[in-house]
Amino acid sequence: MTKKSIKKTNDRANALLVEVAWEVCNQVGGIYTVIRSKAPAMVENHLGHYCMVGPYLNKNIQAELEPIDDAADVFGTAAANLRKKGFDVVYAEWLITGKPRVVLLNPNAIEDKALNVIKYLLWKNHQIAIADGNKLVDQVVGFAYLTKLFFDELAKLVKDEQIIGHFHEWMGALPILDIKREGQNIKTVFTTHATQLGRHLAINSPLFYAHLPFFKWEEEAGKFGVATEAAIEYGCAQSCDVMTTVSDVTARECKHLLRRKPDVVLPNGLNIQRFEALHEFQNLHARYKEQIHQFVMGHFFHSYSFNLDKTIYFFTSGRYEFKNKGFDLTLEALVHLNEQLKRERSEYTVVMFFVTKRDYYSIKPEVLQSRAVMEEIRQTCEAIERQLGKRLFFESTLRQDDHRLPNLNEFVDEYWKLRYRRTLQSWKSGNKLPLPVTHKLVNEEQDEIIQFLVRRNLLNRPEDKVKVVYHPDFINATNPLFGMDYSQFVRGCHLGIFPSYYEPWGYTPLECMASGVPAVTSDLSGFGDYLLRNMPDHEKGGMFVVERGKRTFDWSAKQLAAFLHKFLMQERRERIQQRNKVENYSAAFDWETLIKYYEEAYHLALTGTTAAKA
Asked: Up-side HSE of residue 531: CA atoms within 13 Å toward CB?
């Protein structure tokens, strides 16, 4: 929806829009990407009538803020009024694209005595019990209290303007309950990105989707220890003016677990930077693939080598949820693929990266040592190269009449020859296999990925055509093993694999698409479901959707393995063309296109009708 169309309907043009989320200036998960990437479109569409509210938890966020101390606008005035009452409040521009204005409220500044009163009122007014000792829930309750006070101040200041409060997840939505109880003239929109109960049930229930209509949310929430979170979520879903979620997959979940069908579905987007020429992102792929080559040589070549020109890089990433994120299905498919490639005596090698976050003690010394020794070999080779080149030019080319190439060994000092031999000998480890995991994990023996690799004997043996690198930490530029940002790592890979079992949306395949990297998703993820509904030719664009909703685990694993094999068998030219196609498809997920769904939700909140009915 363009600014022009907003002005025509005009119901939102004068409304104040306050977007509340626990992940405003506070990176925890995928909602942070939604909030941050959507900001430019929101600022443009609402022209000074928009601000965000988030928790002030991390003082380091000040580096990303430009404080506005003397703001005369309504949001700044409301924040200043709260500050005068003794609350810890920051009003600033968030220094990201779009420079949205943010109000940050510090829940940790609320004294325990006051927090206990707030908890009592939640029980008295809304029958929500808050147990002691849960720091996150205490912070959420304190943040909700401060957010409600901010809305109170805002309501005092405005006369002719309407106010819309858009609240994300149970951690941001709690003020809805008191806004409705007090009958305030504030329109409320609630977005659940994933129900708290649904996430736990999906992990523990073998037939989660088949059993959805039959779960009793109160009983199940008690079983999994999320009774408070589920009660907040349920109450907000029942009380808000407009209920929204991020996909049709999650909409079905809301219908059964929150007992309310969402009024609007809000697909997630990205700011798609489409200014790169096709040859440029192909060049970027080649550049970052070379950096991944360096890691692979350091990790594997001390034991054995393989042809890097015939090596394909697959990866998966995200929160560590072995079943929900589809790590289990991916591993099973890799076993099938490995067996098939060995039978065929394929010339290809697959290196599969699992990039996630786990508790660990340190990077394994063997991994660091191998990388360091390989770097020493490189430096030795470069020194030999410089010496050889210099002597070849001065002592042979300029002084001899013989035009034949001399014995190059004569131009290298014995010191460098000996150093090269010794360093190379110390690097080669004989019969030691390359480690499947790069870090020493806490409770490593209980890790499900490692257990699977050992059980199925996928342990990076020389004869294996599929190698596994499990990297239990997120990749960034300071990472000693890769030395590159995550976005650069994605560009250097050939395929992203994300066949999730439970995924309300799924940003990772969309990020691949925006980087010109083909990807796999599933029909149980919001993104995959969106592709099936809106892009029937998605496979031609390099996006493959694994069938999981009505298929067995083994059937889906074999389908995924077949797709991976088909991808491998492509010619290099075909893979280049596929990267071009998938990048072209990404325009459909730009916020400039998808922001219209948010505007529809705001229109519905103000008028009680959808944009189509207006």
From this structure: 29
- Phi, psi at 328, each rounded to 5°: -65, -45
pLDDT at 5: 39
The 8-class DSSP code of residue 587 comes to G
CA distance 192 to 504: 9
Give the C-alpha separation, 450 to 437, whole Å. 8
**DSSP labels, 124-163:** HHH-----TT-HHHHHHHHHHHHHHHHHHHHHHH-SS--E
Terminal Cα distance for the chain, rounded? 15
3-state secondary structure 112-126: HHHHHHHHHHHHHHH
Q: What's the pLDDT at 293?
A: 95
Q: Can you give the pLDDT at residue 128?
A: 94
> At which residue do the structure tokens 């580096």 appear?
63
Closest CA to 42 of 1, 89, 103: 1
Percent residues over pLDDT 90 in the chain = 67
Residues 6+ positions from 255 with CB-CB distance below 8 Å: 261, 262
- Whether the per-residue pLDDT at 534 is higher than 80: the answer is yes
For residues 446 and 394, what is the distance between their CA atoms, to the nearest angstrom?
62
Which secondary structure element, helix H or strand E, spans residue 486, and what is its range? helix 486-492
Q: What is the pLDDT of residues 246-255, one digit of tens each?
A: 999 999 999 9
Determine phi and psi for 134, rounding to 5 degrees. Answer: -100, 100
Tell me the sheet residues that pair with 495. Answer: 314
Q: At what angle do helices 278-300 and 365-391 cross, to 10 degrees?
A: 110
Return d(Cα 63, Cα 66) in angstroms, integer: 8
One-letter amino acid of 407: N
Choose among 268, 310, 217, 279: nearest CA to 511.
Answer: 268
Confidence of residue 116 (pLDDT cuts 50, 70, 90): very high
> C-alpha distances in angstroms, 209 versus 256, 259, 506?
10, 16, 18
Contact 518, 512 (CB under 8 A): yes
Longest CA–CA span in the chain (Å) reads 101
Q: Taking a C-beta distance cutoff of 8 angstroms, is the pair 594, 601 a contact?
A: no
Closest residue by Cα to residue 471 from 353, 362, 370, 372: 353
Q: Give the C-alpha separation, 208 to 216, whole Å.
A: 13
Q: Which of the 8 DSSP states describes residue 13?
A: T
Written as one letter, the residue type at 415 is: Y
d(CA 599, CA 261): 19
Q: What rounded mean pLDDT belongs to the chain?
A: 89
Residue 552 C-alpha from the chain's centroid: 27
Of 574, 565, 585, give the one whose Cα is nearest residue 516: 585
Of 8, 17, 13, 69, whose CA–CA distance to 39 is shortest?
Answer: 17
pLDDT tens string 416-475: 777 777 777 766 766 789 999 999 999 999 999 999 999 999 999 999 999 999 999 989
What pTM did the predictor assign?
Answer: 0.85
Per-residue confidence band for 64, with pLDDT thresholds at 50, 70 and 90: very high
Collapsing DSSP states into helix, strand and coil, what is residue 553? Answer: helix
